[in-house]
Amino acid sequence: MVAAYGLLLPPPLLEVGRHGAFNIHASLLPRWRGAAPIQRAILAGDTDTGISIMQMDTGLDTGAIVLQRRVAIDADDDAGTLHDKLAALGGAAIVDALALIERGHAVATPQSTGGVTYAPKIGKQETRLLWSRSAFELERAVRAFRPSPGAFTLLAGEALKIWRARVVAGQGAPGAVLDAGNELVVACGNDALAISELQRPGSRRLKAREFLRGHRLAPGRRFD
What's phi and psi for 201, nearest 5 deg? Predict the structure, then answer.
């Protein structure tokens, strides 16, 4: 049994075990095969995900499914909280799957050929917030990249990590500051993002109101 293993096992290793080799994967396969299923599920706005116990073959997360368990993705879940949910769910699923395998009651069902999606590793360029996108997409990105590596934007050439934000009504040129009071409200392609926690390079995380005490931003100022 392997979990979060980033390499394909060669055929001789797959055949060593009496029952074969099994993998625990953090998605409801065949959705989100690959390295970053938790982040990709949040980015896509999925409302649920789960754990798949599969019999390994030579493909990338293509093996037959022995057992699946489902869990909801809550509106405030980030990659960290969802990881913890899936870890707990996965621990229980492994116990159940091993019991089925040991008793000879496990049924390995081939994955559907429909609904296949891939979850490639997160690249640094993906963590930059593009203000031309909708506020809903950007809010999901903030959650998907928390606690690591963190979503970021540029202000006068300085990279700022955005740790917490929510969607609010608002309209303006993408990236333009709409309000800089208790929250920092920035216009998006659709609606706006109210940033409540952010971080300068080499500094600690700050509530937006703390940040704004030392960095006055007039409405109309633009984030890149």
Answer: -60, 130
What pLDDT shows up at residue 57?
84
Non-local (6+) Cβ contacts of 8 within 8 A are 58, 59, 60
CATH number for 178 = 3.10.25.10
- 165 confidence band (pLDDT: 50, 70, 90): very high
Q: What are phi and psi of 96, to 5 degrees?
A: -65, -40
**CA 198/CA 181 separation, integer angstroms:** 14
As a whole number of Å, the end-to-end CA separation of the chain is: 45
Residue 117 gets which letter from DSSP?
-
In this predicted structure, the answer to whether residue 22 has a pLDDT above a threshold of 90 is no
Tell me the pLDDT band of 7, cut-offs 50, 70 and 90. low
Phi, psi of 165 (to 5 degrees): -160, 160
Residue 24 sits in which domain range?
2-103
Q: Is the whole model's pTM more than 0.70, yes or no?
A: yes
Pairing mode, if any, of strands 22-25 and 2-3? parallel
Percent of the chain residues past pLDDT 90, beyond the cut: 80
In angstroms, the Cα distances linking 153 to 108, 200, 220 are 45, 10, 16
Please check whether residues 144 and 202 belong to one and the same domain: yes
Quick one: 97 and 16 in the same domain? Answer: yes
Q: How open is the CA angle 202-208-211, to the nearest 5 degrees?
A: 50
